[in-house]
Amino acid sequence: MGQETGNSKSLRHAVMLGVLMSDMVFSLRNIGKTRPGDEGFRLRIEQLDVPRGSLLALVGPSGCGKSTALDMLACALSPDMTPEGFALPHKPTGSGQGDLPHPASAAASFAFSPQAGASTDILAAWRRGGTDALALLRLHHLGYVLQTGGLLPFLSARENIVLRCKSLGTLAKRQEAITTIVDRLGIGHLLGHYPATLSVGERQRVAIASALAHGPSVVLADEPTAALDPGHAANVLRLFAELARQLSITVVMVTHNLEQARQAGFVLAPVRVEQDKGGSASILHWTGRAA
Amino acid sequence: MAANTWTTMLRLACKDYWHEFLLSACAVLGLAAVLTPLLVLYGVKFGVVQTLTERLRNDPRNLEISPVISGRYTPEYLAKLAAHPDVAFVLPRTRSIAATMDLSAGNGDARSVLVASLEPTAEGDPLLLRFGAAVPTMPQSPDTEAIGVTLSASAAEKLHLKQGDTLNGKVERRFQGKVQTARVALRVAAVLPLAAQQKDVAYVPLLLMEATEDYRDGRAVPELGAQNGWTGEPRPQGERVYPGFRLYARGLDHVMPLREAFAAQKLDVYTHAEEIEQVTALARALNLIFALICAATGIGFLASTASNVLAGIKRKERVLGLLRLHGFTTGKLMLFPLVQSLLTALAGTALASGVYGVAAFAINKLFSASVTGMEQVCLLLPEHFVLAFAAVSGLALLAALAPALRAARVEPSEVIREI
């Protein structure tokens, strides 16, 4: 028999992961991303397992690649590609400049399971250049909250909230859930307003409603309360976490406010920064259980 | 689901276009500013050429063809001419020296006399049709009943006649050393306006023309009655041969080919081909000039639209990145700038059409003294507007295509965090 190809290897790996880790929404092994330049970094996700329904907060110093990790989870950013596929350019000896620390396993995998038992091999999708397939995956199963809301400026709060539902044709089905979300976030009176006329706190609450409205499996949030004062931030984060739990939605959040995240019920997954010959490298190793 | 995302993106593109009302309005005004002069220019070009062409077309005399010198044309030859696809109407002419008649009307002091040229006519004569004049007919008994005649305006004026009036026709000859006269009763079938004929002409049935020629040749015309003086020798047996004919081409474009066909037969003919050619050459020259202007404008429009759309995409990178992050696919993202470019094209063309309407009204008012009836100096037909909308929309979409591809390739991770 000939050698097993990279595609079939990763597919086999994804299937295996799907079987063994059916309770994981995300399961990543040896995924990396390098950002060149003065403000660049080298991020390596050695292992990241996100259990379904969990609230996970990625924490670490500024510029370590937390937002990049979030974008990769959102399938909006391709992991680094090598001639062999997506496995990182690792060498056990770490002899060359820019090499990363020795990984636990060389095989790269990235499985996204929006529903239990239905796993998608994200690396294979990237390899096929299937950005549209990944976009559709986002539309159906992901929500995203940015530090500044990420609302479309030409749509009212109501239109922003129902945008994905309209695209999916599920507005009628989701109407009751949307009403609940809007009531819980206390933004009923803001629905006719445009983002430019909302305060930052109001905008973030609308953004959270927008990310939850279509009933995604996962919501990714990039410092959703960073622009708010501490009082408002704690309140918004608490509401966000409560709604996610109530709707059984997994949340992966990037934050610098560890205490606030803990109080809201998030489990902290640290991104540690290590030095090697190539400089500093950010490493994320999270098995799905707090140490 | 696919239909939902398409319509959602369509709505988003329109919403954003409306949201940036001021910028959108500027783009629309910019397009209208380029397009309006072009529409007015084409309107004037089309209006002037159309007016000149219509004037030529509406005057059947411009379609008339007749031999310069007398020839020998048999009925068979004339029948072949009539069957030619470029020929609308043809009638033989008798010798011009024999084609006159003394016309008189009234009695006593009110009696008027006129020597009129005779011109043959029949059903389908374009000259009479053009001016709505009745075609004169031959009665069943022309020896006792009046024969129809259509008079030119000057002839009718000199004889103080109007439609339905009767008059007398007299033909004289010198035969066997004596001056002889034949008479015929006539009734005015119609009076042609001055624009149709300035000379003293009577349009009569061909049979009366032939009778007049026969009589002058010393022959009898029993159909018109010996009692009326139409006596003489019997007509010779055999086919009649005519010295000329009056022919009308089917259209302006057919005059020149017919002239060339006659020239190939060594037959010189009178035509208005030169005047037609002048207008055709003018139209060709104006078409060429307009095509050059259009090409230059089109290239400029393509370049400016492409750069505007590109600038718009650069400005809206974050929005496009957010839409990509929401899950809109490549095609839908491309739709965003394409729809907005199309909206500018449609609104700009609509505005230009409106401004053109005002300009055309002013121009036509200004030059109203130079035109008659329904003629317009500045004129565009509905199909011209349809063409303008289609051309501008097509160019706008073409210009926005490459920038739209760029829009679809926006990397969300690189733009969504920009403020």
Search tags:
heterodimer, A: 291 residues, alpha/beta, 10-stranded mixed beta sheet, 10 strands, disordered N terminus, B: 419 residues, alpha+beta, 6-stranded mixed barrel, 4-stranded antiparallel beta sheet, 53% helix, elongated
Topology:
The complex is a heterodimer of chains A (291) and B (419).
Chain A: H1 6-20, E1 24-35, E2 41-51, E3 55-59, H2 66-73, E4 109-115, E5 118-121, H3 122-127, H4 131-141, E6 142-145, H5 157-168, H6 171-185, H7 200-212, E7 218-222, H8 230-246, E8 250-254, H9 258-264, E9 267-276, E10 279-286
Parallel strand pairs in A: 2-10, 3-8, 3-9, 6-7, 7-8
Antiparallel strand pairs in A: 1-2, 1-4, 4-5, 9-10
Chain B: H1 2-19, H2 21-58, E1 64-67, H3 75-83, E2 87-93, E3 100-105, E4 112-121, H4 126-130, E5 147-151, H5 153-159, E6 166-175, E7 178-191, E8 201-205, H6 206-216, E9 244-249, H7 252-264, E10 269-270, H8 273-315, H9 317-326, H10 330-366, H11 382-408, H12 412-415
Parallel strand pairs in B: 4-8, 5-7
Antiparallel strand pairs in B: 1-9, 1-10, 2-9, 3-4, 3-6, 5-8, 6-7
Helix pairs in contact in B: 1-10, 2-8, 2-10, 8-11, 10-11
